[in-house]
Fold:
Amino acid sequence: MFKKNGQAGPEWKISDEQIPYPQALAFMEARAAAIRDQGAPECVWLLEHPPLYTAGTSARPEDLLDRQRFPVYQAGRGGQYTYHGPGQRVAYVMLDLKRRGADIRCFVHDLEEWLIRTLERFGVKGERREGRVGIWVARPGGREDKIAAIGVRVRKWVSFHGVALNVDPDLSHFGGIVPCGIRQHGVTSLWDLGHTPTLEEVDMALQDSFDAVFGKDRPPCQS
Structure:
């Protein structure tokens, strides 16, 4: 049994090894249930996966371009097809939304803001785009590339799944899918943009930015 969670911040887990997707999914399911039913602490888990594709609840079969390239997992989160792999920092976010306003739209807005503030620390301007999930970067010539993906699930007001920030993944690995169902734009990463932080530096930026967005003194969501 867990001690009932008050207003303390979440537990942070950081994994150095690559975590198989089924292991991560099992942990999230169990922790979300424990937060809801046993008062377990909220949790943010930073990790990498081995190369794989995940299919969200809106995934279209035609957007899986190469079925043999990497394993494909049904994720149960919102969204479409997403790639995960080395060099990408995945942040799984298990929060009790009942004590955070019980507003899913604001929760997604806050996840976006968290990524934007993290990117700012490396001199990168991440932006929202109407009708396109995730965080985008404007490139020369009017091109726009996606640098971070967002896909969440909320069950009885506890969130799981989360965000994926491209630090230095092999961008060619995205070629086996239509990322998030968007064909008109590409993908990028911090290193592709000329910024070369380590994963440890990205982890520090994510942790430092989290409280400004999700902390108890944060301003109300303006989504």
Remarks:
- Confidence is low (pLDDT under 50) at residues 1-6.
- The two ends are 36 Å apart (CA to CA).
